[in-house]
Amino acid sequence: MPNYQAPLRDMRFVYQELLTGNEVSDLPGFEEVDEELIDAILEEAGKFCANVLQPTARAGDEEGCHFENGEVQVPADFHAIYQIFTEAGWHAMAMSPKYGGQGLPKSLHMMVDEMISSCNISFGLLPALSNGAYNAMAAYASDELKDIYFPPIAEGRWSGTMCLTESHCGTDLGLLRTRAEPQKDNSYLITGSKIFITWGEHKLTENIIHLVLARTPDAPPGIKGISLFVVPKYVVNSDGSLGEKNGVSCGSIEHKMGIHGSPTCVINLDAAKGYLVGDVNKGMRAMFVMMNTERLMVGFQGLGLAEIAYQGAVKYARERLQGRAPTGPKQPEKEADSLLVHADVRRMLLTMRAYTEGMRALGIWIGIQVDIASHHTDEQRRTEADELVALMTPVIKALFTDLGSECTNLGVQVFGGHGYISEHGMEQLVRDVRITQLYEGTNGIHAMDLVGRKLSLLGRFTRPVNAFIAAHKDEDELTEFIEPLQSALNRLQSASDWLQQAATEDPHHPGAVACDYLRLLGLTTMAFQWACAAQLALPKVAAEDGAFYRAKVHTARFFMQRLLPQTAALELSIKAGADSVMAFDDDAF
Amino acid sequence: MPNYQAPLRDMRFVYQELLTGNEVSDLPGFEEVDEELIDAILEEAGKFCANVLQPTARAGDEEGCHFENGEVQVPADFHAIYQIFTEAGWHAMAMSPKYGGQGLPKSLHMMVDEMISSCNISFGLLPALSNGAYNAMAAYASDELKDIYFPPIAEGRWSGTMCLTESHCGTDLGLLRTRAEPQKDNSYLITGSKIFITWGEHKLTENIIHLVLARTPDAPPGIKGISLFVVPKYVVNSDGSLGEKNGVSCGSIEHKMGIHGSPTCVINLDAAKGYLVGDVNKGMRAMFVMMNTERLMVGFQGLGLAEIAYQGAVKYARERLQGRAPTGPKQPEKEADSLLVHADVRRMLLTMRAYTEGMRALGIWIGIQVDIASHHTDEQRRTEADELVALMTPVIKALFTDLGSECTNLGVQVFGGHGYISEHGMEQLVRDVRITQLYEGTNGIHAMDLVGRKLSLLGRFTRPVNAFIAAHKDEDELTEFIEPLQSALNRLQSASDWLQQAATEDPHHPGAVACDYLRLLGLTTMAFQWACAAQLALPKVAAEDGAFYRAKVHTARFFMQRLLPQTAALELSIKAGADSVMAFDDDAF
Question: What pTM does this model have?
């Protein structure tokens, strides 16, 4: 594994230069979040992740988790780092100060999430799930529940989980069977079995707070009969102290492709005491609050793993001597040149770089919209921001994790055969990132969400792009960026128009082209970020720290010339629609 | 893991219908290889792979290989299946009857290689390497060496390896340091350390024959000073009996992402007795014979893993009930419809199917050219076939393994979260196939080989395509296949012209676009196979067993409409060339 160096310079560029006027520090509650504070937090987080989290990632993969006699053992080091992590308060960055959190912007939290994911995604899932549980309860739980549960979560003494999936239903939660029987004391007794529960059982915290989807006895069938409950591992007394063990147990843990340091549990509920969160039969609404936060976070996991893969590949390419430049030896004093002389290796590195920095710019842009949507004083601005977040959430979840997979695989490829060997740590990144394309809804489901529910919001994206193009189209030095952006935008618009019409003719069209459409939108969005970055960087390439800006311009150029052409293929593929997909006989598969 | 069913129908279609007039049974030595014999062999191989090999694949992954006290333990079951495998003679299908082999066509052997790779790639590497060693010796070793070594190899009592890589050199073999000191008895004493030696040490065979690249004392530096030696684990007496242990030992084995059942060894040579194969300093020539065979075989591994992933995904999609068709319930009696109703799932399955069948058609076409190149009586035909093989070897190695990776990942995606869990066997396919993009030369190296040395042979491919188009362009029902094929061919031709010109202007252009170019050629080649398949299948769709042909036509249509558009993007990306790749400052990575 390469030694992680947090991409502070790029984060600052995005947060403070590219998205300048981002309004975050103007939002009520974030007045103190100035440049100095942001720098201090990011720098500290970077050090923490590199020095504390990263050294345990490989060992966590090798040691893995073990299940015996109903108990789960996680990698031994994780106990100590969880203490340090929660003492420093990294898990509670965006939780409310009312309950002991730091009340920082979500956008800043996401940047730290990227770093955590680069350094130890298995460990990072524990605080990530606690945050998800916190967010769902923050939106819908009663004040009474919050007053009891939030302080220990904000302290890190309790952790959280999401209990949705059952063995026969993942995507289609309407099929779930877990039952909740109302009791006279306002509680429910919950019985059922949940699978794929990340960090569902462990001993790092005193209590584990499960957010469980279940049906009450008279609930209507399907998705409209699902309610959300909070079910603690240990029953919580009214004074917040821990009572007896609840009817919650871990049945087994999964053997998985990766994230070996994170226990994936079967959680059995046997008349477990739980409390309703939100209204009866409105569980999905509350769960979506939790899922939307998690979805953005999962996207940042893809980004984080792409970043560390890039760092590893660059280090190896610099050090590994193999072959000679086609123009003659570059390092004649050595027995071979470094891999960096080879255009194909550079192509791989630049692909990783262009995707990674493009994701970061796009991700933080949307992170800031999350803060605006929740904190702005103007309702119109909140709505606009919220709609942009809704449009881009599937893109960030699915595109970032797809690109995370592509980039970690490129990282392995740069290493050649050595990439396949565990000791270098590169193959672990491929295995770890693979889950991000599957959990929190498969990427296909997010693509369906985009084409099925979000297309009407497309203007929230195209409007600022058109404004940018209109403002800069006469600047000659920007033509090489504006033109491909305009082409991609035209393709996106044309594909969107086709799809909106086609969906009325055959309801299979949206599903058949959803993944291609999501990628088309995602690449176009990244093209916008790269055009903005180039516009900002160009005047600074001659300055003292011009190297950073020169690299920006070069990478933007590479993105436009070598990666964005994919949009041409996507437009064609989308417009071919569902016909060839649906004509195939079921029996012939 | 799904229960494997050898794709016999499709193999027969390709071998006996699509490539009819393939001339294999007209070639001297293959007179007895008629339809009946081919059917019998493929059927038997399919049963053997499904019943004997596949059941050990998962256990082989879990059990893995272990190294202790210089000895290597492979999965226990592999001992028994190796006995059955070699008694049936599957390893010696294409070896010469003179030494105990069956003398069957290489093309037939490759089809069996696909099946073996579907069912247990880790195990399959052992006979694959024996075949590679056999081929290199067949081309360059003295009759004396062949008479001693070949009979036990053909019996399966001895196995073979390729010892090329050293820790500081993989791609750049010119750097290798292993030394060979000539002795008075015509032997050499060989000293050095080799890494990544597949099946380098084990106890399944009585002896292991290492083919080792090394330098003689006065060898010129670099690639021109490399000789090839055969170095047995146990010294072989002149009567073929085994003598003392040679100076060959296993230093350790690697922990890897996948192919856990196949030991990857460090092989230390300490004054090990060896014998020259071919001429001094001409080792690379002999090694290329071995490598070219292995490269095609590695391509077929990618194909085999794509096939089993497809089978697994189809079975799961059929059985898993989740959600409803957008046009209303298809299985109203059940609580949900099968995954097959979802267009996005069908898109994934059809992508896997179109790639897999396309690879098979292309792979067998080239396999037959291998037989023609070695057995045809007409020199001109031999040369033509040989040139087509040379052109397509990098495509088969690199494209098939890239698509193997894409297809196994799609297989996991169809399973959703369950795909990530080891018990289903789908994630193992992703881990196993990943090595095929790296070993036998990384895919980037093969792309460089294509653009650097093979472009002049492009006519060997474009001529039959143009002939096909000319013959069928007026058949209306073929327009939907001919037109996209023609478009792709135009893009290929245009990109080739650009590249040939560009290479004279900047030697970095070929490397910068090599991978894109290889994919463009590969997809165009598959488009040719699909157009031919559609042309053949269309008149038969109404016949009694028309279902097979209908599926062919539907899949061809899907390939043309949804996958081939990639060529549009590739042409654009290629023509952008190396500028953006090379402009980036080395220090800025």
Answer: 0.98
